[in-house]
């Protein structure tokens, strides 16, 4: 059974800092990996989708990498801002559109 | 483009009562998902539809939960009777098709409190 772990569960950084969020998984047989953002009381917003054949994806200040052999993905946020404060979840695509999610890392960026 | 719509946004019921949630996916999206998200955890898939057919309901507690998508567009999720452990946010998501190239788009969720 695929297990997804996101450590740390919570992270607090000062504004302007570059940071890395981690997602680890036990089975490398994945089809894709997606990073989501969830604001309090809201649904999930897709940030980046990496296909299994890709190594990384970039969008603005965000960069996500995927290393299937080591069972790891990282989400790099450059020059963090208070508006980046949210919970970040990774989801592994298991095939046929099915996904399994990590429990997320709650990020607080202090002004 | 309108996003995934869900209603109600909040619901408080007593245990053993019944409740229903509604979801309208993004227009043209064939695949619809219902997830349960307990506080502090990631979403857990309950059921996945492709048009009006069920693709996966292996994690749906069928003794109390039911879902339908009769015309292949909007969907309802019902709980009857509710238990305290059903307190969670119920998220609906849709994607253009079933497949690993397609992103899932989520609605705002329905927060259910069972007392």
The count of strands of chain B amounts to 11
Please tell me what the overall shape of chain B is.
globular
Most extensive chain interface and residues per partner: A-B, 27 and 29 residues
Give the overall average pLDDT of chain B.
Answer: 93
Query: How large is the count of helical segments of chain B?
Result: 0
Beta fraction of chain A? over 45%
Strand content of chain B: over 45%
Radius of gyration of chain B: 13 Å
Cα Rg of chain A: 13 Å
Residue-averaged pLDDT of chain A: 94
How far do the termini of chain B sit from each other? 37 Å
Shape of chain A: globular
The helix fraction of chain B, in percent, is under 10%
Q: Could you name the ranges of chain B where pLDDT drops below 50 across 5 or more consecutive residues? A: none
Short structural description:
The complex is a heterodimer of chains A (111) and B (115). Chain A is mainly beta. Chain A has no helices and eleven strands.
Descriptive labels:
heterodimer; A: 111 residues; mainly beta; six-stranded mixed beta sheet; five-stranded antiparallel beta sheet; 11 strands; 0% helix; B: 115 residues; seven-stranded mixed beta sheet; four-stranded antiparallel beta sheet
């Amino acid at each position: 059974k695929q297990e997804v772990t996101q450590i740390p569960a919570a992270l607090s950084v000062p504004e302007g800092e570059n940071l890395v969020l981690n997602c680890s998984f036990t089975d490398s047989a994945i089809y894709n990996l997606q990073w989501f953002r969830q604001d309090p009381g809201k649904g999930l917003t897709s940030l980046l989708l990496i296909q299994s054949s890709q190594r990384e994806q970039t969008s603005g200040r965000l960069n996500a990498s995927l290393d299937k052999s080591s069972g790891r993905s990282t989400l790099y946020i450059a020059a963090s801002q208070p508006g980046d404060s949210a919970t970040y979840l990774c989801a592994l695509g298991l095939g046929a559109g099915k996904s399994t999610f990590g429990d997320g890392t709650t990020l607080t960026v202090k002004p | 483009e309108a996003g995934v719509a869900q209603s109600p946004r909040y619901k408080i019921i007593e245990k053993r009562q019944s409740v229903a949630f509604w979801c309208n996916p993004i227009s043209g999206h064939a695949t619809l998902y219902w997830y349960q998200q307990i506080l502090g955890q990631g979403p857990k898939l309950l059921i996945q539809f492709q048009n009006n057919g069920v693709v996966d309901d292996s994690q749906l507690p069928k003794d109390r939960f039911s879902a339908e998508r009769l015309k292949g567009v909007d969907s309802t999720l019902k709980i009857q009777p509710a238990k305290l452990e059903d307190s969670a946010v119920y998220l609906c998501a849709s994607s253009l098709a079933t497949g690993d190239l397609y992103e899932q788009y989520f609605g705002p969720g329905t927060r259910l409190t069972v007392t």
